[in-house]
Specification:
The structure is a single chain. About 35% of the residues lie in helices and about 20% in strands. The chain has about 425 residues and is of the alpha+beta class. The radius of gyration is 28 Å and the shape is elongated. The structure holds histidyl-adenosine monophosphate. The site of histidyl-adenosine monophosphate (HAM) has 27 residues, from strand 6, strand 10, strand 11 and helix 12.
């Protein structure tokens, strides 16, 4: 099918490939997922941060790395009308580090976020061109106890959602002291095997040899089977850091396995890297969250040397994992009260205003529907009570109060009904 043109008369608007709409009632699951994350993050001392959805493309090129797939192949980059090279954010971390470099807040700076992220990926189940993440970042401390705090937060969040199957893999990618020598050893191992690498990595191995370790294709797995191990090249401070992280996770009762091949797709990582996978999502898109340290990222963006660590988690993937595990079910919020008005709608119009101001979730029907049709809508609303006003009630200043579950009803003065309903709400008006 050819792409629609602007003057195509038959064009019916559709969302772009790889994107999706989140509609009610599913959107209330999103709200409650984000609300749960916000609460947990605030309890851990994180404040919310918002940064622009687009940045100078260099933020991501320098931050995430030119050789990464995310930047090289997937980024949405464009020139604005003044010729500035901009990019839609493919992830949250680089933008937040840019904000840190710009504003120099007091450290340790602990922030959380919820954001869309854009990557031109092959669209498939759990893989979108616009996905959404919740995440945290901490800047300004090298303390491995923060690595533990961040990983425990992710773990506890997944438990809060009811996910029991999430598997945590952990690795250390070394630092500026020990990694260069390791990369040389790895390059020396790969050079004579170049011809046997998969097509993608035969091209990039010299620039980014770590990526070959992460490749699941049999050719690369075979070529790296007896490759030098990063764990054996870690310097003493990196070893101690990893040991302290392991100790903290064990003390917090967070199960993990060490995966020396866990490299991750963004080039800023140093030392601790981790990923949570949901086996229930079986397949390539089973990562529900990941993160790690990025101790050189502020410098890459022109700031002072500052250590950092964080993680991000895909909302769509989390909800898919919850569905697969049969947890975090959708709870459709019910109305508190439904107003049925067969006198023309003015009573309903004025009552819902009063009821909502009193803190109640009040609903009504529109367009002068029949009593039968309004009562059907009242049932669908989930409200336990309907207030019914007909011509005689209107004349007498009364209303019929109907218990929708029991089917019983009684006529009362309207003022009394309103006072009673206002007294039943615990929500309070804002
Ligand atoms: P990431 O692993 O690229 O890391 O993405 C984090 C999570 O976002 C993934 O685990 C996955 O759940 C979700 N995700 C990524 N791409 C897609 C996609 N195309 N469709 C659906 N979900 C997706 C980061 O983005 C880092 N910023 C995480 C981090 C924070 N590291 C340190 N701090």
């Amino acid at each position: 099918m050819s792409a629609p043109t602007e003057d195509d008369a038959t064009y019916e608007a559709r969302s772009p490939k790889g994107t999706h709409d989140v509609l009610p009632p599913e959107s209330s699951r999103w709200e409650s997922l984000v609300g749960g994350f916000a609460q947990l993050a605030e309890r851990h001392g994180f404040g919310m941060v918002h940064t622009p959805i687009f940045e100078d493309a260099r933020v991501f090129r320098r931050g995430i790395g030119e050789a990464s797939e995310v930047v090289g192949k997937e980024m949405y980059e464009f020139d604005d009308r003044s010729g500035r090279r901009l990019a839609l954010r493919p992830e949250g971390t680089a933008s937040i580090v840019r904000a840190f470099v710009q504003h120099r807040p007091v450290t340790p700076w602990r922030v959380w976020y919820v954001t869309p992220a854009f990557r031109y990926e092959q669209a498939q189940a759990g893989r979108y061109r616009q996905h959404h993440q919740v995440g945290v970042e901490v800047l300004g401390t090298e303390d491995p106890d923060l690595d533990v705090e961040v990983i425990v937060l992710a773990h506890d969040f997944y438990r809060h959602l009811g996910l029991r199957g999430a598997r945590l893999r952990l690795n250390s990618l070394g630092d500026a002291v020990c990694r260069p020598a390791y990369l040389e050893a790895l390059r020396a191992h790969l050079a004579p095997r170049e011809a046997s690498l998969c097509e993608e990595h035969a091209e990039v191995w010299a620039r980014n040899p770590l990526r070959v370790l992460d490749c699941k294709r049999p050719a690369c797995v075979a070529a790296t089977a007896d490759a030098p191990r990063l764990a054996e090249h870690l310097c003493e401070p990196c070893r101690e850091h990893l040991a302290r992280v392991r100790e903290g996770l064990e003390a917090a009762g967070v199960g993990f396995e060490i995966d020396e091949r866990l490299v991750r797709g963004l080039d800023y990582y140093t030392r601790t890297t981790f990923e949570f996978n949901a086996p229930a999502l079986a397949g390539a898109s089973d990562a529900i969250g990941g993160g790690g340290r990025y101790d050189g990222l502020t410098e890459a963006l022109g700031g002072p040397p500052t250590a950092g660590i964080g993680f991000g988690s895909g909302i769509e993937r989390l909800l898919l994992a919850c569905d697969a595990e049969g947890t975090f079910a959708l709870e459709v919020p019910a109305a508190d009260v439904f107003v049925v008005d067969v006198t023309g709608g003015r009573v309903a119009r004025d009552l819902v205003v009063r009821l909502r101001r009193a803190g109640l979730r009040a609903e009504r029907a529109y367009d002068g529907r029949s009593m039968k049709s309004q009562l059907k809508a009242a049932d669908r609303s989930g409200a336990p009570t309907a207030i019914i006003v007909g011509h005689s009630e209107l004349a007498e200043g009364t209303a019929v109060v109907r218990d929708l579950a029991a089917g019983t009803q009684a006529t009362r003065p309207l003022a009394e009904v309103l006072a009673h309903l206002a007294g039943t709400t615990t929500k309070g008006a804002p």
